[in-house]
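Sat 14:20. Reprocessing the chain from the morning session after the first attempt stalled halfway. Input below, unchanged.
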Amino acid sequence: LMQLQLGSCREEDIAAAIACPVASIHPERDEAVIYGGAVHLSKESLSDRNGRPIYGRAALVRQSGWGKMVEDSPVVRISQEHGILKTGITMRTNLHVGEVVMILPVHSCLAANLLGCAVQQIILPYSYPG
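Finished this time. C-alpha cells:
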C-alpha cells in the first residue's frame, strides 16, 4: 500500500496479502475484529484522506488469491494480535465470523518478515478481475 500511495505501482501490482480470520463482527459500530494485528501487519501505517492512520486495506478472497481492495474497509486500529476492520457496505454483506478476509499490508517486507516461515501459506497471488 505504501508504494501504491506513492504512485510507484498500481493496485494490481501489489504482490502480497495476509489471510486474516474474522474473530467477531460488530454491525452497530460498522467494525469487525480480525486475527491480524501488529505481529502480522506491523505497526507501520499510512494516513487516509482525513489524516487518520490505516494499517492495511481489506480485499475479498477469490479462488486464486484476492480481488480488488475494498476502499471503505481499512484496518483502523491494531493491537498485538488483532485488528479492527472498518466494515463498509461490501464487507458488511460478505463478511462472517470464522471466514478469512485478505488484508493488503502497508509494508509487505515487514509483514513477510513478521510472518516468517508461515508466509508461503498466508500470502497468495493477486487475482485481478481484469
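The beta strands are 18-26, 31-34, 46-47, 53-54, 56-62, 65-78, 83-86, 100-105.
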